[in-house]
Write a structure and sequence with these properties.
This protein is of the alpha/beta class and 396 residues long. It contains 14 helices and 8 strands. An 8-stranded parallel beta sheet has the order 1-2-3-4-5-6-7-8. β5, α9 (261-264) and β6 form a beta-alpha-beta unit. α6 (156-172) packs across α8 (213-233) and α13 (342-366) runs antiparallel to α14. It is globular, with a radius of gyration of 21 Å. The chain binds zinc ion (ZN). Zinc ion binds at residues 5, 7, 91, 332.
Length: 396
């Protein structure tokens, strides 16, 4: 299998994501009370108990700590081995020295280029943004450091050059794609401003002052489209968070995947490959029709974990019945806490996807939609070939 979307890392590693989870309500399956986590602990660690009581959980934490010490860089590779994942994306702020680059390929975050100004009003919008926006500022600073800038360039031209240089340098460091989680920070409705409009706003606020909301969005709309367009020129696919998100203030209607239709169906970006991360859930039924575009793919991560396999099977079946060569597998593995670590969420993603895939294909065969041979091809496509085909020679 090739895992098209995950955040591998230890629970105490701040580089696992470019944002952090604010306290919000987790769906039933993502809570610590999920009995499937006992199965995960048994499968991965030979856990001898049948519950996750605090006393028993200590055994698990100790077992993992020992394995980390003994195995070092092989620790997460061994998790992939146990689950039959050959290689997987590490969507992280920065790569970790404890992830073997032969098994984990980097996807970096590109949102921060859209927040270069005084973000006082952006941060003050709600308690989620109070967590998110400072982390975007930190990310932008790290890119500036990487490119040897002590402050923002005075001219807009030089700002765009800095953005491009960062993309190119990240690509040289091995990154295979750029990721946006912009839906957490603002609406995903992107207008189409001119370069002059964006330049004017940059010039007015680069050395201070707070742009009003309309001005900030206009600037961001231009930068987003610039990044998308550079993604085509550099063969650096664009991954976009396109489903429901965590936190209390994630706005589902403002982040509807169909908002992105005006971008992905824009002929100017025909050479940019888009991967709609999490497949637009709960607008999954609409989402699959975006994959009619030859440069648009859907990833099933998160969806297969928010839903249980019996329900995820319905989503997957419908997608496989529509554009099967555009659907890719991902786990969205993430270190939620010590007991539900990235390790267990890898297991949950793999287990759910395999179970749902087997059920969907069995129905498709019995209903005469595909032959068994064709079903096996669809399985290979979903679990491996479709995603690997996007990155020509860079992954396997
Ligand atoms: Zn993710």
């Amino acid at each position: 299998m090739f895992d098209h979307h995950a955040h591998p890392g230890y629970a105490d590693d701040p580089d696992v994501d470019a944002m952090a989870a604010p306290p919000g309500s987790a769906a039933l399956r993502e809570r610590e009370t999920n009995p499937e986590l006992v199965q995960a602990a048994k499968a991965l660690w030979g856990y001898p108990y049948n519950d996750l009581s605090p006393e028993h959980t200590k055994w698990l934490i100790q077992k993992k700590d020992e394995a980390k010490k003994q195995q070092g860089m092989a620790y997460f590779s061994n998790i992939l081995d146990k689950l039959n994942i050959e290689q997987g994306v590490a969507n992280r702020a920065m790569m970790a020295d404890y992830l073997n680059p032969k098994r984990f390929v980097w996807v970096f975050f590109a949102d921060s280029f859209m927040w270069p100004f005084d973000n006082e009003r952006e941060t003050g919008r709600n308690s989620d943004e109070q967590v998110y926006i400072p982390l975007q500022e930190k990310m932008l600073h790290r890119w500036m450091q990487q490119e040897g800038l002590s402050k923002l360039p005075a001219s807009f031209d030089d700002y765009l050059k800095f953005v491009t240089r960062t993309l190119e340098d990240n690509q040289k460091k091995g990154a295979i794609a750029q990721k946006f989680e912009v839906a957490y920070f603002r609406s995903t409705k992107f207008s189409d401003p001119t370069r002059e409009q964006a330049q004017d706003i940059y010039q007015r606020f680069v050395s201070g002052g707070i742009p009003n909301e309309q001005e900030y969005r206009t600037f961001q709309d231009y930068i987003f489209r610039y990044l998308v367009s550079e993604g085509g020129r550099l063969h650096l696919p664009v991954h976009i968070h396109s489903a429901v998100g965590i936190g209390d203030y994630f706005n589902l209607s403002e982040s509807n995947i169909l908002n992105l239709e005006s971008v992905v169906r824009d002929p100017r970006y025909a050479s940019t490959i888009f991967v709609m991360i999490h497949g637009g859930y709960p607008y999954d039924r609409q989402a699959i029709w975006l994959a009619a575009m030859k440069n648009v793919y859907l990833d099933t991560s998160e969806t297969e974990v928010l839903l249980y396999p019996s329900e995820f099977k319905k989503v997957l079946k419908q997608w496989l019945e529509t554009f099967p060569d555009k659907v890719t597998f991902g786990t969205d593995s993430f270190p939620y806490n010590q007991a539900l670590g990235a390790e267990e969420s890898y297991w949950l993603g793999v287990q759910s996807s395999r179970t749902a895939l087997a059920a969907a294909l069995a129905e498709m065969i019995s209903e005469g939609e595909v032959t068994e041979t064709q079903a096996l091809q669809l399985a290979h496509g979903y679990l491996h070939d479709n995603a690997v085909g996007i990155y020509q020679g860079k992954v396997h």
